[in-house]
Amino acid sequence: MNFDKAFQIILGEEGSYSNDPRDAGGETKYGISKRAYPNEDIKGMTPERAKFLYRRDYWDLIKGDQLPWAWAIAVFDCAVNQGVSVATKFLQDALGVTVDGVIGPRTIRAAQQADDRKLGRFFALRALRYQSLSSFNTFGYGWFTRLFSVAINSQE
């Protein structure tokens, strides 16, 4: 199942517990941040709970089960790290469809017919957004490493 595979990849990218004062997300474990989930016990977060949240709040919203693997993992990672809205709009921009923030039949069909160049555009959009952030000098190396790692995994 693609979700299980994608979850393992993202879990590997996100790592374990962190509470770096330079991180806007604040306290984080398995990529689940206190900022995004103020009512969750971040320090006590289990992989099972993180998996539930990832499926409900990211994978299902980006329609991961309907996207080809390369797009599913790329958009899923973007949703987790940069937000569902950003991921959806970058997907649509890269595919050359109307950027309305809603993944519907046209977006799904375009992803199913897309070539690698469009996927490359998706990753470029992500990189440009990272570069525009004030925290790029602090976290940019890690973000780019993650971006390239996910790009490699998307080709499996």
What is the count of structural domains?
1
* Major pleated sheet: 2 strands, antiparallel
Q: What's the mean pLDDT score?
A: 94
The multimeric state of the shown protein is: single chain
Q: What is the H/E string?
A: HEEHHHHHH
- What would CATH call the homologous superfamily? Chitosanase, subunit A, domain 1
Number of strands: 2
Describe the structure.
By secondary structure, the protein is mostly helical. It has one domain (2-153): Chitosanase, subunit A, domain 1. It is 62% helix and 3% strand. It has seven helices and two strands. The chain has a two-stranded antiparallel ribbon with strand order 1-2. A hairpin with a 2-residue loop joins β1 (28-29) and β2.
Question: What is the element layout, followed by pairings?
Answer:
Elements: H1 2-14, E1 28-29, E2 32-33, H2 47-59, H3 69-82, H4 84-95, H5 105-113, H6 116-132, H7 136-153
Helix pairs in contact: 3-4, 3-6, 4-6, 6-7
Summarize, please.
This protein has helices at 2-14, 47-59, 69-82, 84-95, 105-113, 116-132, 136-153; strands spanning 28-29, 32-33. The chain is an all-alpha fold.
Task: List its salient traits.
about 60% helix, single chain, two-stranded antiparallel ribbon, mainly alpha, 2 strands
